[in-house]
Amino acid sequence: MASSAELKLLVVDDEPGIVDFVKKIFTRKGFTAFGVTDGASAVEVYQKEKPHICLIDIHMPYSAFDGVETLRRIKEIDKDAVCIMVTRLSDKDKMEAARKLNAFAYLLKPVKLDQLDAAVNLAKGMLA
Amino acid sequence: MLDSTLKQYFIALLATGIFNGGLGIFVLLKGFNKRLNQLFALYSFSLFLWSIFEALGITRYDKSLALALWRINHIGVVFIPIFLVHFIFLLINIKGWKRKLIPVSYILGSLFVILDATPLLILEVVPKFSFRYFINPGKLYYAFFWMWIAWAVYGNIELFKEYLRASGHRKNQMKYFYFPLLFSYIGGVPNFFPTFNIEIPVLMPYGTYAITLYTLATAYAIVKYNLMDINLALTRAGIFVVVYALVLGIPFFLGYEYGRWLAATWVMFFLAGTGQIVYQYLRKKAEEAMLREQHRYQRALRELSREMARIRDLGQLLKSIVLTVADVVRVDYIAFYLKDELHKSYGCKYRHPEDSESKLAGFIPFDAPIVKLLSANKRPLLGEELQHLLKSGPNCSLIVPCFVEDELLGIMMLGSKPQNRMYTPDDMLVFETLSYSTALAIENCNFWKEIEDRQRVARLQEMDTYSYSLAHEIDNPIYTIIGQAETLENTLLKELNLSPKKEREIKGSLSYILDSAWRVSAMVEAIRDFGRPVTGELKPLRINDVIESFNQLYFPRFKSAGITFIKEIPEGLGFVRGEKPQLMQVLVILANNSLHAMQRSKEKTIILKAETVNHKWARISFRDTGCGVKKEDLGIIFQPFVTTKASSEGSGMGLYNAKKIIERHKGMLWAESEGDGKGAVFFIDLPRTTEITPEEQDNIDNEINLFKK
Q: How far is A86 from chain B, CA to nearest CA, in Å?
């Protein structure tokens, strides 16, 4: 299993405040965390850095493409990319789309920190 | 020259003839096509014929001329009681077999007119008492006389009976008509006596004046009590006669008494010049006085009509009509009943004063006799008419129906005017006009309400979409607050190495921030659940979740309304199949109803209880301490457009929609109430479900969710 120091995490959310605290948390846990606030940048960063785990907000109305589209493009680059989707229970259709695109898991907003932790740990297990 | 007794006879008869003839002409002119006016005119003309030709008959020197005049006179005499009784029959609307008496009387009358040409009725004329010529009776004169008396007495009796029966306005009409008539017959009948060689002193010449008096009294009754709707014309004529009697009378008197004809001519020229001005002035003043009340009414009515067209709210419309009429007519009470299709009745929507409740029924059923009567008559009816036509009925002084074509939209009920004054025909006319504009204004309001309802629905749909996207907008900042606060609490704070006391303080603040943020988040979720588009797909739902979401959504409202909200919700109530936003909506509808019902309650408590009835059914009950529901209304409150709220507040669709939703969930919704003021309980029974597919189970559990491969 790769140590956390070598693990890269990409946080995609159109709310900078969210990106900020997720980065803070995982940086402290030893990840190299990248944060972006729109889908296009996410694909760009993914292309360059090939992060191990992606946390993607599904609902991003101000982004050129939303979380599902971002997921699709990342999967085009690497079909084994581990992506955890963050969503509201009400976005049933998008969740279904994400499932079909082979997303790893989903978390319901508002996400509690221990849930986030647990999900990322599960993903780490996948990588091993 | 005439001797003085004969002169009195002559003048009394002449005056009677002129007055009656004049009255007859006026009544006829004002109602040429009306049977009542025609008959009254005929009666007046028969009196004219009698009195003028008797006046001429008694003063002739030529015997054969006198006989001819007397015979013409008797044509009038014959028809006096016949026209009178016919007129009375029409006036008091006599029905049945008695009406057959009228043609019989005309046949008999015609027979006597034929006999009048023969000595069988009038044998001859001879000088009698102070008369130059008076008649001696023929063989059939006694039969004629007694028939005449009998018929006149019968007419008087029928009229008297009507006088006893009548009340209010009509009683006064009858009074002014009946008593002068009786008086005139007492005064007039002695004119027969000289025929039988009887002379009663005093009564005989002067009694004739009674007939003139009768004419004047009748004219008074016509003016004051609108006997035949000719008051204005008669007043004008009266003023004209008085003014020109003076214009011509004063010069004539000067010339006749003092022989100064030249001076008289000058005086006449002068008076004739001023007479017209005086006449016009008096006429104007009299008309102003007579029409003042009418003008005031009409002005107020015009204003009201103008205002009515502008009012779009039905409640406001009825209020303004009721208050204006109460102000203009100064009635002791007034109420407006509005058609209520649902209750099959006319409900009392507005009344004035407020405490007139005891005098007024709360509603009038569609099949009430009064409704049928109004539908048949389509005009305002007086209290007396109601009593007369219905025997029993509302105890009001005037009832005004509001029709649009054949549909009776509303009923206005009025109490009496100050000092029990009567409603005049002018009033009735004003109310009839008012009823038309009111009916149109009601239609207008209904039309506007429909448009506003449609606009409101459109606005609500927009709000729906808006609040749904608003919830999304709130999500992100809230998530930021929660995430950042948690990061602060769990991670960043530790790095500061603060003293335990400082750290506790900061953690205290952070926990407030987190609590509040979580609460907002839950509410947003509830709003989103509530506003989520309805798909019609019934999925398994935790009953507890539905109630908790409702709680999140409505707890703030209950709190601000000062309501004690008690939840009796045990854990693990199981599942029902349904749509969360729809079930939440039912609870929201019930909550809104309760909030409205408890507006005036001292104790404001809502108890939301949920329980499992058995393995098949779950029951949610919603109990409030509001105004409750009347027993008879428990069935209809779930029908569409039923509302107890003011018209602007509720569409009357709430409970109807709630019931529809519950029925779609294969459940039942019903209400129980101990009655007015005792609160209400609404029960929702929903079928429980245990058959849940694993996939559905997944969707219900929402901790960490791995997508199935």
A: 10
